[in-house]
Structure formats: C-alpha cells, structure tokens
C-alpha cells in the first residue's frame, strides 16, 4: 500500500507564514523512507499531517492539497519523547494499551505483547514500572507499543536518540525485518548514520519545500546538500568527501571495507610523522573514591568506582544503557548520595554540601532539556544561571551569544516551544554564564541536526579554552572520539577502563566487551596501519595527505 501526498501546503493561521509549500511525495510500500531537513524545516508538521493530527486534532490551520490513502488505514507514530506516549504503570500495561483500543480479545492482546517483547529483546523489562526505566529502555518500550498494533504505516521520529549503540543496532535490525515482511516505514531523523544500510528512499525538506527526492547513494553523493540540510551521514562518507577534495579520481565508498579497498594502494608507507598526544596529566578537579550506590529495591547501580577528572579536559563516559553513567554523574553534582565511598571537589568531600552549593561548581545539563526550562523567554533562560548565582553580566554579551548560536530571532520565544535540538542548545549555553568549573553534559546531541552539533562542538571547545572540565555522556561514538581527551568506560556498574582516547582506541577487546563499535575512522586507520590512530576525519585526511607526499617523494 502506497501513501501519496499531492500539493500539500499548510500554515498555522491565515496571518502565519507557510510552513509547508506545495509538497509532493510518495511513500512506497515495503520501503524505509527517510525524511530529513534542518530544524524548523517543516518535518514535524509533515508528520502531523501524515498521522492525521492535522487536521483531525489541530484544525485551526489552513491545509490545502491531498493525502491519498485507504479509508481504513492505520498510521502510528513513535514519538521522540516516549514519556508522552507511554500509558500505564507497568511495561506490559504500556504495551497492551494501544492493542486494547483495537478491541481485540485478551488472547490476541497477550500474543501481540509477547511478540514485541521478543522482537525487541525486552522480555526482562516486562514486570518493570515504566517510571523506573532508563531513557533508552523507555524508547524501546515505546517502539514496541506501536509495533504491537501492526500499523500499515509506522512513522518513527528520532527513534534511537536515547538508545545506546547496542540498542541502535537492534532497532536497525527490527526495521529491516519489518521491511522484509512488507512493512512500510518512515523515519524522521537527521542522523542517517545509524540506518543508512536499510534506507531505500530519502526526502529532503528545507524551508517547507522538497529539495531532494531520491535514493540513498544519490543523496550521499551530494555533500553540499547534506550539509545544507544538517544531515549527519556515515563517517565513511565524510572521509570520502574530505579526501576527494585532493583526489578527484577517488571512487566513492560508504563502508570501511570499501574505503580500505579504495585507499590501500594510494600511498607507500603507513608510518605517519604525526606525534601521538603525550600531554602530561594535570590536577584532578573532581574525584570519586570507592563510590558505590544501591537503591531501595536492592539494585546496585555502582560498585566501588574510582576515577579522577582532570582540570581543562574533555572526558567522555562510555557504556551501554544501564552501565551506571548517569547514576555516576548525578553523584558528582549531589543529586544522588553514595551508599559508600565519596566524591571530592578540589580535594574536599562534598558530603555535607547541598545540591545548590555543589551546582555552583559542578553543573549537570540533563538529557531531557524540558526538565531545565521554566523561564518566560529564551533571553531570560540563557541568563538564568548568572542571575541565580548573582554573577554580573552585560546584556550585549548575552545578545552576542544568542546571535552567534542562531537564537537571536527566538529571544522572546517561550523556551519550551523551541525544537528539541534548540532546547538542548539553550540549556547548554546558559552554562556559559555560570560559575561552574565542571560541566556535565548528558546526551547533549538529542534532537540536534548537523548545524546544532557544530554549535555544540564550539561550546565544548570554548569551555575547555576557559580551563573548565567537561564531562560528556554520549552514544554518538564518532563525536566522542573527535572531541574527547580521555575516556572512562563503565560496564555493569563497574569501572572497566580509563585513559586517553588514543590509548583506549588501540584496545579492540575492550570495545568488543562493551559491545560498542569503534568509529569507522579508527577502524579504517587500523586496517591501513596508521600510527598514531586517527580519531576524527580531519586528522585522518591530514595523515593520508602526508603519507601520499612521502610516497610521492620516495617514488621521485
């Protein structure tokens, strides 16, 4: 069954500008269609039309054009905020809710619940209360609750934004299984990286208009378009476009194996003259000593963690969902108190300090920005930390920050009305006006397209330049390797390893154990025998360029 949109235009009121302008597109049966575009391009409005929210529930706007589909079709949406979509106290209740509303028998309901528990490998969560689940677990349950209804069209809005690498692989596998079984799926996500292997059709939207409608390879071939739309492509595609700037005869590649085949004969020696990072360690601004945490239900979230966080460094904490990452950082700013062990800041224990006192020095930006937004406009939200801590600031400095990070036009907007990515950006920017010496960012890329991620990178580098310590939790592994100085690896509530990015990148067994793939640029560096290993695209391209020059000189 195909779904066809013809000449769809939409505006929220007669006075408002057009959000969508003459949209034409077809969603073909048994295919995975990606809808991509920058924040504010109209993607969410298009999803509301596809799902029937517009005009059935939101009927005050002006909608023209036609959406062709059968009358009895079922279209279901997986929201990017699962908390808004999970009904019921327990996981089984949440999974059964939608199916119960279809009027099926209790036997059929049980069958469908059992089926999606098995499909998404979440049988172990069936008796859990929804409120006790991690962000990634809630997202998996949300996806399962939608699939249990067996809709004709599934629309997934950033379905893996809170999932760990293992979870992303699982969702990719599930979508591929459904595709093979004839399921039609739309994925609205500017991160094409995680599902590039299974996407059939890409639709690019910018300023409310379709600017691309074609297959995956055609889209990947057009680097300027992908950048304009803020789309995150596989790192191997970025590597190709970076190298192709100086090698126009280079054949396109999208996988590590294809990249290796294209590059292995292009230079003579694999010994780069670039030195590995050998910076001497600096003082620990923050430490945890024999830190353990058990909750009231007996669950042990942390087991004797010892770790130090150096001043002026970017340290990323890696591990699958449930490994203890967020629990650990909530101890650093006092939201959790240890069952045993201690946290010290500048050599002094934080045991007797309140959260408010600790937050002057150690600030945590939550995974879900809605939990931190409560001011009446963007300007006041940006300067909240400064006002709360009594720190003087110049209005012109705040306005300059808003302008530099493309938020000036939103300065009078209610913060909760911003896109998810901009909400996250705003909460992080407010830290620039705080007194904190340690900044903790928990999954800061949630809802961010490529443009917003570049802003995020700039903020993190700015904090580092100011001598601040940045602690990052992220499942975006290529970004982690690009930004970080050091890694702390957790697994099943225990510290597994700690060290520089270069050091740990050499340890393939470590990443196999925690079921996290090394970034493509690291894996390609290993296959090509580069030393030191490149951890980001720019350093990889620089090493290849150097080796080609060496090879050319030797041949000369």
TrEMBL record:
Its main location: membrane. SUPFAM superfamilies: P-loop containing nucleoside triphosphate hydrolases (SSF52540). It comes from Sporolactobacillus inulinus CASD. Keywords: ATP-binding, Cell membrane, Membrane, Nucleotide-binding, Translocase, Transport. The keyword NADP does not apply. It comes from the Bacteria. Pfam families: ABC_tran. It is a peripheral membrane protein. Signal peptide: none annotated. This is ABC transporter.
